[in-house]
């Protein structure tokens, strides 16, 4: 479990599962898909940039399991 401090509040997070790296940056940071518990809540699918030690992060987006299933279905129905 780790703590990220912002100007306004403390954010407690725990990466429950590292699913995969989407993009590797020359800085050492990576855009990743992980399963993350925020502030002790149920884990959510999470896409954001992380530093190599997973202590600092960028803003990102989280998805409940139903939302990630919908996202996958939408992408599967497109030609990419």
Describe this structure in words.
- The chain contains one helix and five strands.
- The chain has a five-stranded antiparallel sheet with strand order 1-2-3-4-5.
- The longest helix is centred in the last third of the chain and has 12 residues, at 65-76.
- 15% of the residues lie in helices and 48% in strands.
- By secondary structure, the chain is an alpha+beta fold.
- It has one domain (2-76): Transcriptional Co-activator pc4, Chain A.
- The chain has one helix at 65-76; strands at 2-5, 10-24, 30-38, 44-50, 61-63.
- The termini are far apart.
- The mean pLDDT is 92.
- Strand 2 (10-24) and strand 3 form a beta hairpin.
- This is Transcriptional coactivator p15 (PC4) C-terminal domain-containing protein.
Keyphrases for this structure?
80 residues; Transcriptional Co-activator pc4, Chain A; 1 helix; 5 strands
The CATH topology label is: Transcriptional Co-activator pc4, Chain A
Order of helix and strand elements from N to C terminus? EEEEEH
* Most strands sheet: 5 strands, antiparallel
Please give the count of helices: 1
Structural category is alpha+beta
Number of domains: 1
Unreliable segments of 5+ consecutive residues: none
Which band does the percent of strand residues land in? over 45%
Shape call: globular
Beginning-to-end CA distance, first to last residue: 37 Å
Q: What is the residue-mean pLDDT, rounded to a whole number?
A: 92
* Helical percentage: 10-25%
CATH class: Mainly Beta
- Spatial extent as radius of gyration: 14 Å
Count of beta strands = 5
């Amino acid at each position: 479990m780790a703590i990220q401090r912002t100007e306004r509040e403390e954010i407690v997070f725990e990466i429950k599962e590292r699913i995969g790296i989407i993009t590797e940056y020359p800085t050492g940071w990576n855009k990743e898909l992980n399963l993350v518990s925020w502030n002790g809540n149920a884990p959510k699918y999470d896409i954001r940039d992380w530093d190599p030690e997973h202590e600092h992060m960028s803003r990102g987006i989280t998805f409940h399991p139903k939302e990630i299933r919908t996202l996958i279905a939408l992408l599967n129905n497109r030609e990419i």
